[in-house]
Structures are given as structure tokens and as C-alpha cells.
Known about the structure:
By secondary structure, the chain is α+β, with helices and mostly antiparallel strands.
Amino acid sequence: MFKINIKTAWRSLLKNKFYSAINIFGLAVGLATGILLLLWVQNELSFDRFNKKYPDIYQLSAHFVDNGTDKTWGGVPGPLSVYAKSIPQVLAAVRIHSEFDQDISNKESNRIFGGNNMAFVDSGFFSLFNYRLLEGSPETAFPNYHSILLTRTTAAKLFGGDAGGYHAAIGKVIEFRKEPFTVTGVLEDFPENSTLQFDAIFPMAYYAKLFTGWGGNGDWKTIDADLGNFAFTTFVQLQPGASPEETGRRFSAAYKKARNGDSQAQFRLQNLASIHLVGADGNTSSLRMVQIFMLVVILLLVIASINYVNLSTARAIIRAKEVSIRKINGAGRRQLFFQFVTETSLLFCFSTLLAALLIYLLMPLYNTISGKNLSVDLFNTGTWKVAAAAIMGTLVAASIYPAIVLSSFKPVKALKGTLSPGVGIAALRKGLVVFQFSISIILLVATMIMSKQLQFIQTRDLGYDKNYVFTVPLPDEVIDRIAAVKTELKKQACIVNVATSDAYNFSDINSETSDIDWSGKVPNSNETVTQVCAEKDLIATLKIKFIEGRDFSGGPSDSDSYIINEAAAKMMQLKRPYTGQKISFHDKKGTIIGVTEDFNYQSLKVQIKPLLFFTFWNSKNILYVRTTAAQSRQAIAAVEGLYRKYGGNTPFSYHFLDVSFDAQYKTDQRAGTLFNAFAAIAIFISCLGLFGLITYTAQVKTKEIGIRKVLGASVTGIVQLLSRDFLLLVLMALVLAVPVAWWSMNQWLQGFAYRITISPWVFAAAGLLAIVIALLTVSIQAFRAARSNPVKSLRSE
């Protein structure tokens, strides 16, 4: 029986080549798109789950409630890992302190590599996480302060050879911060789906030694005692079944006790598996994007299935006599049902093969757009699960209803020619077309609004000029001669201005502190300011405007002078004139000498926060250079020349501020690009189905069209006759899509503190575009039918 069903299905596909091709191609495009998106979703949801203990691993974060606003820091003080030992629910605690864009060198072969991401970790790091050591042992990874673990790639860079030649690194000496470190192990490169990404790892004991050598932080001389430095990313492993909420309260109580009650900090725990998609402050924008993509997968597969359902039910009358003859010859409804399911399954086999070819061809482009490195691994069970979910879900959605309809015909009515498809089937078919185009219009609106928001971000006045400014991280050798470097650079015609600061990326400054005091400050309040250590001319280099006061002078008086922004003045409730008022910062009393206009030094997704410029730290290791569009190359060359002169062969790197700014919104830009593709694919699949339906309609009405033409009907009139119903369906889709699109995109825009207002013209443009595309699709086939010879049309009937 199965063999007969296959033969019959194959003959049916060959007999109806046109409709078979439409169904196969439409389903293949839907399947290929769905599987690609599901691979992306699977990758996003897989982050950090390779760690076997991830269900019980949590990250600590600090929360301060100030005037009803919850301020969140992802880092916590070092002593919390000490408190963990006295909390019964905690099995282990590990601190990580990160440093980015650092240089390490192999003096023997004169190799120096910059841009490395370093981490200082506690000894229990490898007991908590499942990062693999290729060489060395987790138990003896850090035998002393001057031990270092390199990743496979970093070891290959430093000691030559390819990534497989890492064995030679063991026992070798590298230099970091002018100190020697012995390589005691080589790590496999951190997985792409790991939140933690480092090039080298040092023992926390070394950082603790440095901290004490620097004099600590005020009265706190060790990292285990420093209650004011929220610089440690801290993970804890809880007892199975332990409450993270209760554990967080115990950490909060221990910290408050250590501060003699002078603290309102609350520490909360977030599971390791969720930190990639959910921020420490509870922001779920990344998780919502994954959920939206998952919804888009389902909708695209449903749209592809609708084409098959529509064409199958539309052609039901043509197949009615076939079904009736089979029933008269003894075929039961169940037998016919499985016959049509077999026919759909065979068509799906061809669609799946074509989808696999499309995935193979599109994967490189898809990875470029999505920023991922995805692949279809045939030996990965996860890949098969994704493919099976997409294929089986679509197969069930597309096959069941047409099989039921086609197997339910009454033989007598069908043979007499009195069978009609029924109001229910016709209404369902129209409803499915409306649904298809509603989804297409929603995706069109989404792409337009995303594009406008991203354009708004790129053109918004940030309060400073990011154009033609680049930064250069400076090694100690250059910093020691920074005065001479700046003097020489200012003589260059290609350089407008230069200055130094500790802000690595001026579009994403996150160094906050609550160690500030002023007259009238409420006791135990949790107000914080973003701190920027800078010298004279940084504000001028970035063209930040003053509303009152002046810049630093470059003299000794700068050490007790402060510049704040408007938000800081409002936070402190200062009255004009602001200049001359006294404040204390890090226990150093000083005077406000200037107040700048508010400017966006962080993502436009957050409101501008209070900020303070000061000068007295010796950490101004980032050079800011303003040049011009025509002379940027000469400016870079001039800076690099002096860098080489004083810094030797230390790697030279630079970053333009506008590029760093745009990088903050790379995820949103990629989402916008993907939504463009989704909208195009959804419209293509919908129009493919529409094309099939209008072709079938023209075929059914061949005799009617011929009679109308004989009676004098024009081509335009016949095109209108065939097109009118379909265009009405698209208009209905527009009406249904507008409120859904407005609500969903309004929710997306809530993630931006500074955003556009949704214009009604967006919906009008999207609707008009959908109507034009549908009109072209329908009119092409309707015009062909209207142009046909009426004599041939009547003869064919």
C-alpha cells in the first residue's frame, strides 16, 4: 500500500508541475529561513550551559535604591567571597578581576602583542567552571604569584607556530607590566558561547599583592578588606535547592554589618545561564529579541504552510472526481487521508533537500549578517533537533487539513458536478491570505522603525563631537614622556588638539563611585557619579560646552579642582553660581571650577547620569587626538611615529570614537538587517502563494473570461475582476497589522532612553508597499489571462 501511495503521489506532482514547483520552492525558502533562525536562537540560549554546574552557579550583583531608582553594578566588593565561607547555602565562591587591551611580550623572540583581555582569578576557578586545560593541571595551575595561563591562540602568537604548537609554551617566560611570568598551562580557547572571554589568566594572589603595594583603598589595605571597590565579578555555587533570594539577603546583611550598619546595598544572585540575555538590572531586551526571533521562525513556517493549504483546498474541486472514483472503487476515507499525507510528505522531501542546499549556500552570508559563527554539524544532535522541529512542525501544519478536506468529498455530488468548496473552506483560505500579509506588513513596519531609530542614534547631537577623534592606549614608556609627546604633536598641522584620560571608550564610560560628599548631602544616601580622570584640553578636544566656569589650567591647582555636568549639579541640588562651591571626592576636598552641558557618554538606551572630571590620579593612559577628515591618515602616522620613538616595538593601535560609538548598536543594526531579510522573505512567500491562487482562479474562470471578452469586456476590466478580491484581502491585512505593529515596536523603543516618535506615515508606507507588491503579483497573471484568445478559452472548456 505504501508503495502504491508513493507512486500515486509522484504522478500527482508530475501532473501539476506548476503548483508543485510553487509549493516546493515556497516551503524550501520557509524551511531554510526557519532552520537558520533556529540555529541562531539555539546558540543564544546555549551560553554558559557547557558548564556542568551551571544550574547551581550564580553571579552576584549590587543594587542601590536611590529616590525610587534602582542602580545596579555588575561588580561587587572583594570581601563578599570571604563572607561566602560563613553562609551555609554557598559551596564555593570565585572572584574575577578583568583588564582589557593589555600588552604581553616574549622577550626572547622580541614578540609583543597588544589588545589582550586579562583576568585575575581565585584558585577555585577551574573547580567551578569547565574550561579545558590542554597543558598543565588545574590543581597546580598557579604555583606562585608569577604564574600565567595562556589560551591556545595566545600561546601560538607569542611562541610561534600554529595554534597546535602550544606545547612549546609550557615553562617559557613572558613579560607583563614589566614583570616576568612563567607559563604553567595552556587553555583551550574560550568557547564562543561563553560569557567569559579572556586571552590570559593570572592568579588573584598577584592582583592582591599589587593592590597592597599601591597602598590599598584608604583604610582598606587588602582586597579581602576593601568594602568600597565594586570591581570584582563574583560567582558562587549554591547547595542544590538553595534559595538565591535568601542567599542574597545573607550577603547583604554580612556587608551591612561590616560597614557598621552604614549601607543600603542589596546583593542579588542571577543564574549563570541567564546572564547573557538578562542584565544584572533585570533588563530583558536581549531575551525579548531571542523570543521575537523565535516567534518570527514560527510565523515564517506558518506562512510557508499556508501556501500549501491554500493551493490544496483551492484545487479541491478539480480533484473531487479523482477522490470520488477511488471511493466508488472501495477506497476508505482513512486510506485516502494517508494518500494525501504521503503526497505532502513526498513534496516535503524535495522541499527539505532544496532547503538544505539553500542553507549551505546562505550560511556564510548569514554568519556575516548575524555576527555569529554558526554551522550545520551533522554529528550534532542539537542540529538534528532544530531541523526536525522545523520540518515536522511545518509538515503537520501543511498536511493535516488539506488531507481531511480532500478525503471527505461525497462521490455522488462530485460526479454530478454539484460539489462546491463550501463557505467555510473559502473563508479559511481568505483568512490565511490575510494572516500572511498581516505578518509581512508587521515585519515591514519593524524594519522601517528600526532603521529610523538607528539613523536617529547616529545623527543625534550627543553633546560632544565624536567625529575625527581617535584614541591610542599608551604604554608606560610613552606615558613617562607624555609632555614631550603632546608638545610635538601639537606642532603638527594635521592635529587640532590632544589630551589624555583614563576613559578607554568615551561613548561607554562605566566607572561609578559613591565616594563623593557635599554640603547638604543626605546621610547614608546612595548617590553615585561617573568618574573620569582627565587633564587639561580633554573637554576642548571633544568640544564639550560649558554652561558655567572653565577648563583645568594644567597647573598644580588642578589637583583640588573639579568639573561636573548638569546632571551632577541637579543631583547635588546646587544653586547658581555653581563655580566656587566645595565638594569632597575620594576624601580629597576641592572646588567646582566648571559645569558642562549634559552629554551622552553612555549608550542612548540610558539616561545621562551625573559625571565628574578630576585630575589627581596617575592613570591617564589613553591619548585623545582630534584631526580632520582630510588629514586623519597623516595624524595617525604622526602619533605612531612618536609612539614608536618612545615605546619601541610595543604594538600600536588606535580607535576612532565614531566607530566605537556605532559598535554599541551593532546588535540592533544586525537585528534590523535580519528583519529586512525576514520581511522580504515573508512577502516573497506570501506573493508566491498569491501568484498560485490567482493562476488557479484564472484557470477556473477560463470560460467566464472568454465569454466576457466575446461580449466586449476590456483587458483592464478583466484584470480588475480577477484582482479586486485579492487586493481587498491585503487591505484587511493592513488594518489588522497596524495596531499589532505599533504595539510591538513601541515596546522595542522603550529600550532606548532617547528615541523617535512613531509616525503614521510609517504604516502608510508599509501598507502601500505591500499593496503595490501584491498588485504586481496578481496583475501579471491576471493580465496574461485577460490577454488570452477567447476562442481558445471557450474551446478548452
